[in-house]
Amino acid sequence: MILNRRCALAGDFCSGTRRFHLVLLLPAVLLALVLTPHLCAQTTTNVTGVVNDPTGARIPGATVQVEGKETGITRSAITDDRGVYNVAALPAGSYRITVARQGFATEVVSDLTLSLDRTVSLDVTLKIGSTTEKIEVSGDMPLIDTTTPATGLTITPEQIRNLPLSGRNYLDLLQIVPGVTINRQADPGTDTAISVLGERGNNTGYLIDGLNNTNQLTGGASAQFNQDTISEFEVITTGYKAEFSHASGGVVNVITRTGGNDIHGLASLFARNNALNSSNIRGLVCPLCSVWITTRLWAASW
To answer: In this structure, which of 20, 91, 128, 235 has its CB flanked by the most CB atoms within 10 Å?
Structure first.
């Protein structure tokens, strides 16, 4: 009888433990569901706009299809009663946008390049005609995002690939952003290395693919990434949204390169020696110039 009572008590304890674990698990799951859209918002772009006819009247029921050229990702939306459409959570890249409606010629925006963390307004005017008739136009992303008060600059993939960098550190490109100062005399991992609008270095927040990458102890980026792995990044100097937390200074929002439809890869070799380096002072030999500094950096994406 005592044994049966002990088993009953043990069963009650285990049942209570399971209920306790379930109570702890539910808030964690709800928190993850709430935070997921915010992580996407930091690294993706929304395309929104109005579809009109030649008279300026709104066209409801038009189909807007967005197709990524590099990845083949496809998203679609239908205009509402006001002729408004919205395609959300598009990764940065080049896209082809097709707008069609019965009784109108299909319009195709052949090459629209989207950067990260933007809301792009793209209004389309459909001409009277058959849906089999296609009118192809080119589209450019606006230089200024009028949907946010934030100020800053986006460093594009072309700039990362083509601008010369000493040491292949992509964060050196911060110096082309207005309001950002790089202290070359300071250790890159210290609080005084990079200043945004006069703020201390550890007040700047660093994000990599929507995740926190800030060194909470000394400031700067916690994990270092090779230049070849970075797709693009934006530097927000002021006025950023609440989703960019853990920063009272600027925000450096970085996304890495992804794969595409074709198999591709890259390899790089960075070498520096005394044949290419010299001292800034005439007649003075740089003590580091006689030392070989060779780093082999390999990266591939599929």
So the answer is: 235
What pTM did the predictor assign?
A: 0.76
**Could you give the CA distance from residue 152 to residue 235 in angstroms, rounded to a whole number?**
5
Q: Could you tell me if 272 and 217 lie in one domain? A: no
Query: 18: helix, coil or strand?
Result: helix
* Mean pLDDT within 10-22: 48
pLDDT on residue 68: 93
Tell me the C-alpha to C-alpha distance, in Å, between residue 288 and each of 30, 92, 172, 285: 54, 40, 21, 9
DSSP 3-state of 45: strand
Q: CA-to-CA distance for 116 and 156, rounded, in angstroms?
A: 10
- Whole-number pLDDT of residue 112: 92
- DSSP class of residue 128 equals B
Locate all alpha helices (DSSP H) within the chain, ordered by sequence. Answer: 2-43, 157-162
Range of the domain at 208: 151-262
Contact predicate 120/154, CB 8 Å: no
Q: What is the pLDDT of residues 111-138, one digit of tens each?
A: 899 999 999 999 999 999 987 888 888 7
CATH of the domain at 258: 2.170.130.10
- 271-275 long-range contacts, CB within 8 A, separation 24+: 271/295
Look at the chain and count its residues: 302
Which position has the higher pLDDT, 18 or 140?
140
284 SS3 class: coil
**What letters, b where the CB count within 10 A reaches 16 and e where it falls short, cover 114-147?**
bbbbbbbebebbbeeeeeeeeeeeebebeeebee
The token pair at 83 is 């002729």
- The closest of 288, 289, 286, 287 to 276, measured between CA atoms, is 289
Question: Is the domain of 251 the same as that of 268?
Answer: no
CA distance 134 to 139: 16
